[in-house]
Design a protein that fits this description.
CATH class of the largest domain in chain A: Mainly Alpha
Largest interface: A-B, 41 and 41 residues
CATH superfamily of the largest domain in chain A: lambda repressor-like DNA-binding domains
GO molecular function (chains A, B): DNA binding; DNA-binding transcription factor activity
Oligomer: homodimer
Organism (chains A, B): Puia dinghuensis
Order of helices and strands of chain A: HHHHHHHH
Pfam families (chains A, B): HTH_19
Helix content of chain A: 55-70%
Number of domains of chain A: 2
CATH topology of the largest domain in chain A: 434 Repressor (Amino-terminal Domain)
Strand content of chain A: under 5%
Shape of chain A: elongated
Keywords (chains A, B): DNA-binding
Protein name (chains A, B): HTH cro/C1-type domain-containing protein
DNA sequence: CAAAATGTTGAGTTTATACTCAACATTTGT
DNA sequence: ACAAATGTTGAGTATAAACTCAACATTTTG
């Protein structure tokens, strides 16, 4: 059930019928790097590179980011607040389900 | 209003009346490293080192972590979920106040 | 005031991150 | 079949992260 970053990327790229070379070109990295990532010979790229990849493949970045262990600068900004960290620690302890996350999203929106 | 990591650490350490050498010893780093961090000559340490520092100083880690730009492995785990990332992105757009964060904490607890 | 404690500085080290380059292997289209 | 496209591999590079070590300066205290 725990898919690697590489396998996931390869799958998405295949769905989109794009070659490693095309993707690499549009992202701005060497194509051999894409190959290594897809075969899990190298760890996932930097968060900002993952976002470029997602943009190129026209998929939501969080799908790839979530599988990467990397945190984007945007998210680091959000976490630059003690309350945010406390919140996330509580969340961790509770081990939220997907449904619960979405419920929270609702609460969030109805906050304003 | 934007205090540096170094100044904050120095303040807390002084409040606790602990020397750089004591702190360094108990954390397991060189004392000169503490000095450089406190004077912002070097960037904040790794997240896990920051946590050790907070433990040694007996303060909640999130106070220091929030000012560091670093993300602990614990938090990285929480963010290994697309829903979590989506949630945090929404939060970012909304620029939540402290009060709102706490309100969310409440909602979170009342979720179970 | 002297010595012990504490703090600062410059220079270096080790390890990890984030890739590139060149060569070769495999697959695909005609 | 054969060439163009695509994918894989090994080796290397450049930069940053996360520190250490040794020397010296400053402050504190008996």
């Amino acid at each position: 059930m725990n898919e690697t970053f590489g396998k996931l990327l390869k799958e998405i790229r295949h769905e989109k019928n794009i070659s490693q070379r095309e993707l690499a070109l549009s992202v701005g990295v060497d194509y051999s790097y894409i190959s290594k990532i897809e075969n899990d010979r190298l760890p996932p790229p930097a968060a900002e590179t993952i976002i470029k990849i997602a943009d190129s493949l026209k998929v939501p970045p969080e799908i790839l980011l979530a599988n990467s262990g990397k945190v984007s600068n945007d998210l680091k900004d959000v976490i630059s607040n003690p309350e945010a960290i406390r919140f996330l620690n509580t969340v961790k302890q509770m081990n939220l389900s997907n449904a619960e996350w979405q419920s929270l999203q609702q609460q969030l929106k109805s906050l304003r």
